[in-house]
Design a protein that fits this description.
Shape: globular
Order of helices and strands: HEEEHHEHHHHEEHHHEHEEH
Structural class: alpha+beta
Low-confidence stretches: 253-261, 266-273
CATH topology of the largest domain: Beta-Lactamase
Strand content: 15-25%
Number of strands: 9
Bound molecules: zinc ion
CATH superfamily of the largest domain: PAS domain
């Protein structure tokens, strides 16, 4: 019987892989997989204080160890330095991140939480807590599976690094995709926090709000919950946006007016039928 949390350190041990903290002197490097002969070791960055992100990093390295083709592609020199946590666009890094998320947050064990009617941010925090996974990974997992309208934006020094969003968020009229390098929209709580290194380093959380069209100018001017999380020494800011948007209501309104025009064009109102 599987239960939470999954312990990646114990899993590494089962594969005879040693796990140690290490100071890489570069905060973008989350960890490293090393091989000497037939032995393997994993190092995770000492600058990562969050246990959830440590677990994610170790799981990412286990991904390189276990996924087909990774060893051949990455360990020719016996050492692979990772940028875990979704900031890299390298396909091997992305695959290892996906592996880590699946390992720490197995769908069967988080499905009930994601389908629960709890407010979204509460669910995300519960997943992170129960799975001992990072808030970032839990948010992305939540975006992938929820029916709620939610988006996550990770930024560094006021510039977007990447965005992730649930299917229903993507279907909101006028929502465009934020791209790497885009500035955070001014006037939002996130832009007010983005250079507050002290706040970010202490992994603080702020539950705030803004208007959806402040983020996406073409979107409706509806209120959005804007929760902000400092991602610690990693230096990044995570913004989670929740909006209430019912596409069916919109469709109904549209089709009502369509019907009316239709009937008018067919001449119902002029007594032709
Ligand atoms: Zn890696």
């Amino acid at each position: 019987m599987m239960s939470l949390p999954v312990d990646p350190k114990a899993l590494a041990k089962a594969f005879d892989i040693e796990v140690h903290p290490f100071d890489f002197g570069d905060r973008d490097i989350s960890g490293c997989l090393m091989s000497v002969g037939s032995s393997f070791a994993i190092a995770y960055s000492t600058s990562i204080r969050s246990v959830g992100f440590q677990n994610f990093t170790i799981s990412h390295e286990l991904g390189h160890y276990l996924l087909p083709g990774h060893f051949e592609a990455l360990l020719a020199t016996g050492r692979h330095y990772s940028k875990a946590g979704y900031i890299s666009t390298d396909p091997y890094e992305e695959e290892a991140d996906t592996f880590a998320a699946e390992l720490l947050m197995p769908w069967k064990l988080i499905e009930a939480e994601i389908r629960s009617k709890r407010p979204g941010f509460e669910s995300i925090k519960a997943i992170s807590e129960n799975c001992q996974s990072s808030l970032l990974a839990s948010t992305i997992k939540f975006c992938d599976h929820t029916s709620e309208c939610v988006a996550a934006v990770v930024s560094y020094q006021g510039r977007v690094e990447f965005m992730s969003a649930s299917e229903s968020f993507r279907s909101i009229q006028g929502v465009t995709w934020l791209k790497r390098g885009d500035p955070l929209p001014s006037g939002t709580p996130s832009s007010a926090r983005c250079r507050d290194d002290k706040w970010i380093t202490t992994c603080d959380i702020s539950e705030d709000g803004s208007l959806l069209n402040a983020w996406f100018p073409g979107a409706p001017a509806i209120e959005a919950e804007e929760d902000i999380v400092g991602l610690g020494n990693y230096g990044r800011l995570l913004t989670i946006l929740f909006a209430e948007w019912d596409p069916e209501e919109e469709d109904e309104e549209e089709s009502k007016s369509d019907d009316w025009t239709d009937r008018w064009q067919k001449g119902y109102f002029r007594g032709k039928r």
